[in-house]
User: Which sequence fits this backbone?
């Protein structure tokens, strides 16, 4: 295992400390329990938005804390759900009196721990709503999930719900728009290589030199099939087929096309993928109205990528375009 | 070789086509010869700024084309200088009548080809100035370089010179500020793994499972020494020593601290590195006034990172903070 770390058990602590040192203009950090909040939290009268989950998927979620997106992010150990304590503490820290939305990826541990934290918050008089993200069309159930997994589509939910909260929508409205994004986004990924969880020290799975895994989960959970390495265009087509037929996306739709790197993929490859995905959407008469390309929902140093497609309407475009100021996404004022 | 590509000889063409499809709000692309220009080029009366070099370092340089930064980027083949033709064409495309600045990393091929293009442009009546970037303190001469290599500090030159051009500075002034940034920035990197150039198909060098290369070049050129893998903090200290003593940076200095990923390094590791670098600067009484963390000057999928430190003054801070709208750096209006 070759990593730029000190002690495997300090990876999250030290990374969060570095994040705090780098982005003190945007965030504050609680070290015990560990969570990251936007610098001006709580914002009075605004719905607070909290997300979180296992570390190792950065910039998700800490990189999305800031004006116009998340109020707090709660990182667990690498690929491990945070416990209810830090989720509760983050919920308290961002409560501006208008309630708090939990954005939770559909993994059993995350769902349970966010639910427990929500119950505890409610007992303290904080109103909490939750949206469970399950955008991955690859498999029906999975290693850590009943139903579909939550993957890169989470980024789009967090941006759009964050914009709704920022403009002053109430908790029910912010939860509605988050649910709407989740209902309109579909994703699927591929791995060329596994990754190594620091405290494990070994790859969580293995792939032969000429093998790739179609439908990989973001913790290396099994996908649909292992196949021999193919040209990028053929791989893109394998991912887009199930994505497009699932919603389905049809001619005349306006969409956001999101090509997400898994952490170790060079940017030239992500753009080669984008190029083919754009060709395929054009063939289907689907209009790419917005785009996102880069490493946003990663699996440490895994080589691979995922494609997410979100069906847009005027409301979602307005919220997507709204200003955002986070470490990983920033535009507008 | 496991890559998300189609044919190795089409990597740059297809990646640029994908870049164009993803960022048509920001850029236009010429496919023959290949270069990327900002959507509104040429901007009348504004100094144009052109950079370029071998591909494989993305987002540098195409990701920095847009308002407030580069007017054009010229990508060569992977790790290979672009020829004078596309550099000349890009120079013509961005000439708004106020002259054009070439920002050139110090590699023999780049320097020669940009010089030739500048001579040809001058013969057409386009005034061209050039700044040669040589921020890498690792080695005195190198595989493709007489003198020091140009590495991640280039990003800082491009942002700050871009802001100077955007506010209307004349060619001599933009060249002066670019030279100033180059004179005040120092960098050094480390590789944990090599990378594979697509048309070569094999790693350009090899490292044992427990070995790292201190002072690596961005094309895998040899650095200062190969050592056994050490804790991240010890590696950071090895890079910071030569960086700090070179300028030198001293107590009371205000700096921009830039931790740059080489392409395959997880973000948690970059922040662990940032944390230690910030500690060391604090011990030296150096004030971190601005920060940048992420994959900006990469070497395909190489695992590793570089640290750059730029000594700031009020002028440089104002220009750094100025709005920028590119695929890879975006803030302000």
Assistant:
């Amino acid at each position: 295992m070759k990593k730029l770390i000190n002690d495997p058990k300090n990876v999250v602590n030290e990374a969060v400390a570095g994040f705090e040192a780098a982005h003190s203009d945007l965030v504050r950090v609680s070290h015990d329990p560990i969570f990251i909040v936007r610098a001006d939290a709580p914002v009075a009268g605004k719905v607070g938005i909290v997300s979180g989950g296992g570390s190792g998927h950065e910039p998700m979620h800490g990189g999305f804390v800031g004006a116009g997106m998340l109020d707090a992010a709660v990182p667990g150990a690498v690929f491990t759900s945070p416990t209810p304590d830090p989720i509760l503490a983050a919920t308290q820290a961002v409560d501006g009196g208008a309630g708090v939305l939990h954005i939770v990826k559909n993994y059993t541990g995350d769902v349970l721990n966010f639910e427990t934290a929500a119950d505890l918050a409610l007992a303290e008089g904080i109103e909490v709503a939750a949206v469970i993200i399950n955008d991955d069309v690859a498999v029906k159930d999975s290693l850590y999930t009943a139903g579909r997994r939550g993957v890169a589509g989470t980024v789009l939910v967090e941006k759009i719900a964050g914009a709704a909260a920022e403009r002053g929508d109430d908790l029910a409205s912010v939860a509605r728009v988050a649910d709407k994004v989740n209902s309109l986004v579909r994703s699927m990924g591929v791995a060329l290589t596994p990754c190594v969880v620091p405290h494990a020290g070994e790859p969580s799975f293995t792939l032969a030199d000429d093998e790739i895994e179609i439908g990989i989960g973001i913790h290396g959970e099994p996908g649909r099939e292992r196949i021999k390495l193919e040209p990028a265009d053929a791989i893109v087509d394998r991912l887009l087929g199930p994505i497009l037929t699932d919603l389905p996306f049809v001619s005349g739709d306006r969409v956001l096309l999101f090509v997400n790197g898994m952490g170790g993929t060079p940017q030239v490859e992500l753009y080669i993928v984008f190029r083919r995905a754009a060709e395929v959407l054009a063939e289907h008469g689907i209009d790419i109205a917005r785009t996102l390309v880069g490493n946003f929902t990663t699996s440490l140093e895994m080589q691979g990528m995922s494609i997410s497609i979100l069906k847009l309407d005027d409301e979602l475009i307005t919220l997507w375009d709204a200003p955002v100021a986070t470490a990983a996404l920033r535009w507008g004022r």
